[in-house]
Design a protein that fits this description.
Length: 222
Amino acid sequence: MRRLYQYWLSPFSRKVRIALNEKGLDYEMEVERFWERRDEFLALNPAGMVPVLIEDEGPTLADSQAICEYLEEAYPDRPLLGASPAGRAETRRLVAWFDQKFHREVTELLLREKLMKRFMALGQPDSEAIRAAAQNITYHLRYIGWLVERRNWLAGPDFGLADIAAAAQLSCLDYLDNVPWTADEGARTWYARVKSRPAMRAILADHIPGMPPPRHYADLDF
């Protein structure tokens, strides 16, 4: 069976998990503490980052977008990129928005300050970084709300990889109780729809020892 090296609050790991679930593909998970930089893991991905997917008797794949593009080509029955060239371009634009811009301006700051510093004994959280992320996330939630006012899903009429990339980032932050859902009702309603999908059940069941999620985390009517 294919194996996914991942970490619970890595949004890129979650992105691949949701994509695999949407495509109905079975897999086993290995929790990888990537900051330990194990030699065995570096042999799989010299960049030392999760996720890494090993196909059963197939290739070893690294980088969440490379993995998702591979899954789209190898298992096309449940498409996630869009039905037209323009639709696929818009999906890729929004995936880059959430993988790069949202992650840089929000997720990376909060995960580093509230989680990774604790695990890596890097000192106290930087309150300025946390405050900047809190300001930035409101802007991104309003952009999500703006998109879903005009479309059924973020990139167009169908649920796809743009929704997955956004939900992967937000679900990590929601686990830390750092998403101000009252900032935009459209974004909150969109995320409630995402949470109701079967592919999200395993994500909402995540429970990190010693760090339980807030009560609303798995609640579909939050």
